[in-house]
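Q: What would this chain look like folded?
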Amino acid sequence: MKHKIKIGATEKSALRSVFIKPISMVLSLLYTPALLAYLGDEKYGVWATILSVISWVNYCDIGIGNGLRNILTVSLTEKNYERAKRTVSTAYICLTGISLFVLAILLISVKLVNWNTLFNTDIDINVTLLISFVFICVNFVLALCNTLLYALQKSELVSLQSVFVQLINIISVYVLQRISSGNLVLLAITFGASSLLVYMSTTFNLLRNKKYLRPSFKCFDKKMVKDINQLGLKFFIAQIAFVVLYTTDNIIVSKYFGAAQVTPFSLVDKVFNIGYSVFAAFLIPYWSKTTAELASHNFDGIRKYFRNLNILALFFSCGCIAVAFIFRPVVNAWLGKTIEFSNELIGVMCIYYCIYSFCGVSSPIINGLGAVNGVMLLGIFQGIVNIPLSIYLATDGGLGIVGVRFATLILVSIGAVYQFIYFYYTLNKLEKKETLRSGGLHE
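A: My prediction, written as structure tokens:
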């Protein structure tokens, strides 16, 4: 008698996300050379740096999104829909207030901060920043639909949203090529509007079908603010530290070596990141699934997830090494022009993504366990050390732009070992606590 292999909801969601990713990869492969041709080397570098800056806004929610994700996942697992509605309503209202506050600060910064000096460019970017800041703050709130989808364990729909955003962006660039030349203002408008349209559509459809997730002023609960922030604030501190670690490289390169040098740096990063995004798509459901398994006290299941995903990371690393050997001819053919990429930059970026993949396995599962304290301390350490170490290795160390990513590589390597140990420490601690509790109940 043949036995059918059963695939759980999490694995199905992960597989759907992975199947969607090739579409995303193709769109990205089309978008990058089109954008580079439209903007040119220097403006492309400026735009990549602007994206690094506006991405910071996504981490200004004081951890509300991540706090909501864990609490909502437990509420839905327990079918406590009344608590789910209060949690969602409280999160939306709080995040709207934060978004307005952040927007006010950003608008003031456009007037007070000399962004051209910071970016080391003569290109006027104030209007572009102004438009980008407005869109990112609006999308900041609308993007909570992603958190709801994660809690519902429908991460494949988040990946599908990304495909639609990319599709709109690539169509926009081809249209812009026919009506203008290297216009950063028009690019900022189309880039922000693409996310706005997709998030609004998803939010409308999701809340129309899931009435218990519809936010309401009547369901705002001050007590839920504390519950969300108690966990969310720790996520926030960790996020701020990690944003310093992962999004300041382009700014450092632009500041010390010029905006044009951001182009080869960001392109090498993008090539390896395209492959990583497929790997990461498979990991997405495991945050909420880990939270659900923890609520059911299925510790062996969590260990199994962790073990299997680390094996997957090993295969991904082999893929990265293969890409490094064929990188230069393939990428120059893809871009339709010759760009100088140093062997050192390609090698460091390859090793970085190999090691980063193991961090990618640990992070969602540790977050799903709600064990943020250790990750928060790691992030603070990495965030404090990253910028001065990057600047030192790039300038005094004589490594140039390679030194910027090499510094991040060193810190990510430390983090990979730390997170591996911290996962097993945390899970064993939680399992022991549950065993003692269960034993006490039986007595």
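The chain is about 85% helix and 0% strand.
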